[in-house]
Design goal:
It is a single chain. With about 190 residues, this protein is α/β, with parallel strands linked by helices. It has one domain: Maf protein. About 40% of the residues lie in helices and about 25% in strands. Strands 1, 2, 3, 4, 5 and 6 form a 6-stranded mixed sheet that branches. Strand 3 and strand 4 form a beta hairpin. Helix 3 crosses helix 4. It is globular, with a radius of gyration of 17 Å. About 40% of the residues are buried. This is Probable inosine/xanthosine triphosphatase.
């Protein structure tokens, strides 16, 4: 029996983000077959978001821009990595925003604290992936295991971190009746509606 194909516009061409989006959707909706269409769109925030709110805004903007660029799909997924200082340490995490024609879901990954050498570079304006590459002597780590993969020796990698949050962002889609009553029929994608 052939599964119904669902088109997913992923607001990134980073293979880690595309894979996490597909695996998260497939796990939550095994009755469908998901096909990704990666697209590069602006986040409208800093290359390295430095707060929780800026990171969520970046994920939201990516979804909004992907929807405008490719309005014929079943899902749109935006993933934005960010950092924030908590007490005296710099924590890393990502926000995921998923939308369909009717609903919007969002979730944040777990967070972890960056080692001082990486944190200092990021606080000087270096993007986290570049800081990781410099400190660990790698190339393009953000399209591989990312900071978490380097720090855990890939016990947890960037795809693992993102995939769980994609699943959490899909909770409203598994429970439409509970969430639709609070979202407008035509999904409003304005930041103030977060």
């Amino acid at each position: 029996m052939n599964k119904v194909v669902q088109k997913v516009v992923v607001a990134s061409t980073n293979p880690v983000k595309v894979s996490a989006a597909l695996h998260g959707l497939q796990a939550m909706f095994p009755q469908y077959e998901f096909v990704a269409e990666p697209i590069s769109v602006p986040s409208g925030v800093s290359d390295q978001p430095m707060t929780d709110t800026e990171t969520l805004t970046g994920a939201f903007n990516r979804v909004s821009n992907a929807f405008e660029a490719q309005p014929t799909a079943d899902f749109w997924v935006g993933i934005e990595g960010g950092v924030q200082t908590l007490h005296t340490d710099l924590a890393a995490f990502a926000w995921i925003v998923v939308r369909s024609k009717k609903l919007v879901g969002k979730a944040r990954t777990g967070m972890f604290f960056l080692p001082p050498a990486v944190a200092e570079l990021v606080q000087q304006g270096v993007e986290l992936g570049e800081a990781d590459d410099r400190v660990f002597g790698h190339t393009n780590s953000k399209q591989k295991g990312g900071a978490i993969g380097l720090l855990t020796q890939n016990v947890v990698d960037r795809a693992d971190l993102y995939e769980q949050a994609v699943k959490l962002a899909l909770v409203p889609f598994r429970n439409e009746e509970l969430y639709l009553q609070h979202q407008e029929a035509s999904v409003s994608l304005k930041p103030e509606h977060f």
